[in-house]
Amino acid sequence: MLPFLKNIVKRAPGPLVRGATFLYRLTPPSFRYGRGFKKALALLQQSEHWDTGELEQYQQRRLESLLNHCYSNVPYYRKVFDERGLKPGDIQVPDDLKKLPFLTKEIVRKNKKDLLATNFSFWSREAAHTSGSTGSPLNFFVDNATMSMNRALALRHLAWVGYKEGDPVAVFKEPLSGRHGRFKDYDPVTRELRLTLTRSDDTELEHIFEALETFKPTFISAWPSSLYILARWIDRHKPLKHRPKFLITSSENLYPHVREQIESTFRCQLSDWYGQEESVAIAMQCSHSGKYHVQMELGILELMPREDGYDEIVGTCLHNFAMPFIRYKSGDLAVKGGESCTCGRKHPTIDGIIGREADLIVTPERKLVSPLGMNYAFYYLNEIKEGQIIQHDLNTLLVKIIPWEKLSEDTIATLRNQLTEHVKSSSMEFVFECVDEIPRLKSGKRPFVISNLRSQDFD
Q1: Which residue from 105, 227, 119, 229 is spatially nearest to 173, judged by alpha carbons?
Q2: Among 173, 338, 343, 425, which has the minimal tally of Cβ within 10 Å of its Cβ?
Q3: How far apart are alpha carbons 324 and 350 in whole angstroms?
C-alpha cells in the first residue's frame, strides 16, 4: 500500500479500517508490497548460500551507493563530510566508517529536515517512530526498500524455524487496529490469529488461552512479556493441550529465565529476533543455537565497547535512502560473539542481547546495574503476576506489583532482600506498591524498567 494511503486509512473509523485491511490482505504480497519486496526476497534467497566474502562484497557495494547518495542529496551528511575533509571514496569498507561521527537520537531530532534526502518526495517515504519507552518518541522516515527488506527478513526468520506457506500463525503483540477493547482478530486470508493482552486479568488470559487452543497455531509470534504472563497463568490454571512447532519473540528483552518458563510451558523451542524501528541492524536466532545471526543484507552492525564493560550496538542501514542513518547509536547492549553457529550459515553472530542502555538501574554510588537479576528476583515468587521497577531519582526505586490474589509480607520481604542483594547499594531505598494494573505504552508494550533519570543526574 502506498505510504500516503496507508496513513489515511490508519486515521479512519474502525469499520473502515477493518474493511480496508481485509481487502488489502486479499491482494498477493508481490502487489501488496510492490517490486521492492519481490527484489528483497530474491536477494535473500541468493545470499542464504553466500560465503563470508560474498556477504562482505555486497555490503561494500551497498555502502558505496549509500555514501555517494548521502553526499549528493542529504545536506546533513554533505556537511559532515566537508567538515572532515572527506569524500565518499575515502570510505571503502565498513571499518572505514570510523572516520564518521556517531548519529544519536538527539542529533536526529535537531537535524531532521537536513537528514531527509532532497531527491525523495513526501509521497515516496513513510513516517515512522519509536515507542517512546525511553522518553520522547523519535520521529523519522523510511522508504519502501527498507520496509521491503524488513518484511523479507521476517519471512526468512520464519523459514529458518520451519515455516511453510499456509501454516497457521498466532501473532500476540500490539493493540488491534480499529478494534478498541477487543483481544483477538482472525484473518482468514493469511490464516493469522492476532491477539493482544491489555489488562492481563484472569478473564482475559483465559480467553486468550481458549483462542489458542481452538486455533491450534503452528507458530506463535509474540512479545516475551505477553507469552511469559500467559505461560505462568497456564501453569497455575489449565494444562496446555496444543503444542506449537515454534515460538518467535521480538521487540523486548528476552531474559534467560523468561525463555526457560515459556519453553517449558509451551513444550517447544523459542527463537528470538532483535531489531529496532530505525532498522539499522537486525539479528535473529535460528533453530540450531542461541546465537544471533547478524543480517548483513540489511545493514552494518558495529559493537562499540563502553566504560562499564558492555558493548553498544551501532548500526548503519544500507537501504533507507530517504532518511539515511549512518553509525546510529541504538542504545541497545549486546554480548560479542565468537564461534560460528552450527547451522553453517556465514553471517557473523553475537552471543546475546542484554537490553537497552535505558534499562540499566543507576545506584546512588553512580554504578550501573543490569535489570536481569532484578527481573529474576520476581521469578520464583508465586504470589506475583507482574512487576515493574520505576526509577525517579538516584536514591529510590518504585516497585509496582500485580499479585495473582494477595501479597504477603513474607513475599515483599523476600523480594526486598533479593533486590537489595542485586543492587549492592546500602543507600538505595525500595518503595513497594501493590496495584491492579501496570499501564502499557501506546504501542502495547510494558517495559520492566522505566527510568526517569536524565544523563546529567549521574554524570
Answers
A1: 227
A2: 338
A3: 24
Flag whether 287 is in a domain.
no
Name residue, grid cell 542513518.
325
Contact 329, 278 (CB under 8 A): no
DSSP helix/strand/coil, 349: strand
Contact between residue 285 and residue 259 where contact means Cβ atoms under 8 Å apart: no
Question: Hey, what's the cell of 457?
Answer: 543526574
Supply the angle between the helices 224-237 and 256-266 in degrees, to the nearest 10. 50
Q: Is 422 a domain residue?
A: yes
Asked if residues 371 and 379 have their Cβ atoms less than 8 Å apart, the reply is: no
The angle at the Cα of 272, spanning 271 to 276, to the nearest 5 degrees, equals 155
Within a domain: 334: no
CATH number of the domain bearing residue 446: 3.30.300.30
Residues 6+ apart with CB under 8 A from 233: 202, 205, 206, 209, 385
For residues 20-28, average pLDDT? 54
pTM above 0.90, yes or no: no
Nearest-angstrom CA–CA distance, 425 and 364:
7
- Domain assignment of residue 392, given as a range: 361-457
The per-residue pLDDT for range 374-419, each reduced to its tens digit, is 888 888 898 999 999 999 899 999 999 999 988 999 999 999 999 9
- Show Cβ contacts of residue 369 under 8 Å, excluding neighbours closer than 6 positions: 360, 361, 362, 363, 422, 423, 424
Longest dimension (CA), the chain: 66
Where are the alpha helices (H) located in 279-408, listed in sequence order? 371-377
Beta carbons of 130 and 276 less than 8 angstroms apart: yes
Q: What is the DSSP string of 41-96?
A: HHHHHHHTT--HHHHHHHHHHHHHHHHHHHHHH-HHHHHHHHHTT--GGG--SGGG
For residue 3, what pLDDT band results from cuts at 50, 70 and 90? low
C-alpha span between 192 and 166 (Å, rounded): 9
Which triple of cell numbers denotes residue 190?
493469511
Number of domains in the chain: 1
- Is 121 part of a structural domain of the chain? no
